[in-house]
Amino acid sequence: MKDVIYLDNASTTPLDGRVLEAMTPYLTTVYGNANSVHSVGRKAVNGLDEARETVAKIIGADFNEVYFTSGGTEGNNLALRGAFFARGDKNKLITSSIEHPSVIETAKALQTLGADVRKVSPNSSGILSISDYLKEGIDDAFIVCMMMANNEIGTFQPVKELATACKGSGALVFTDAVQAMGVTDINVKDLGVDIMTFSAHKFGGPKGVGAVYIKNGSRIAPQITGGHQERLKRGGTSNVAGAVGLATALKLSREDLDKNNEYLKGLRDYFVKGIISETGVAILNGDNNFKLSGNANITFKGVDGESLLYALDLHGVCASLGSACSSGTIEPSYVLKEIGLSDKGAKSTVRFSLSYNNTYEEIDRAIKIIKECVSNLKK
Ligand code: PLP
Asked: Model pTM?
């Protein structure tokens, strides 16, 4: 789209052309069902196996520890519900108050089914602490959940330290890596987690496909029952093209990862500096040293975030609201409130998420547009 400055990559990313190319045969000529025994089916199985192998190798897992899903939301449901329904005697689910709604709402649903749900809050920089998790009693937990990077303020969380602290407790350690995958080098064995979810559309892959790493031996009850696909963990005809797309996008994301992150961090800091100095009313949320390189979650004091978002859209700048729209009203973001923002502050917040495809020229234009929009809304 001409002249659009897309700064909403945490919502979704454009499909990489090379990913589409890799997927195309599986949407056209290689149309077999991966469960069929004939030659057409076997070609599809080959594509699926190769995709699983690629993903497993990149994240440091075994081939049979990777399960394809329809995305992050399904993966998070499988992790939490699957652990709950296979939990044995333990009944405690420890999570944080800043997880994605697909975790928060699932935990809430499990609470109504009898789970003892504990939520840990972050500090004012948006970082969770291991000691707060330990205080909730890890030995009685069937699962302990900590996202790898927050989707609103971008802060990384100490997942590796949590996994180390949980060793020997018997609790499954689960991380939602939807925002971190594709922009960080993740090795599950090094990280020490039992379950990890991610989603292709956040790193140049197609929408509607994700994967879950489930360490061999972890007790997870299937949540979509039916056929024997995904080694009985997730029934339904395999989305071979999607799996190939995810694997290809993940592989591509690892090329020049450090160089891209360095560029992106520089671009993001330039953007934030420009916004703060040009508008005079901007405050950056979340620890700036320990966050996703493309994230800039900014509160514009005295400016309505929703109005700003619409004004920016009219000028071709795409971003996201720091707060969620539910039932026609804007609810202040629970993540922003958890790090100490008032309702008003949260409603004055916009999330920008840059990618390494953005240029300095675009960012200069965006800063100018944001400055004008903020100044008009202040009048
Ligand atoms: N978890 C996090 C941290 C996310 O940011 C998102 C999507 O924004 C999801 C889960 C859900 O992923 P999906 O869109 O693939 O369902």
From this structure: 0.97
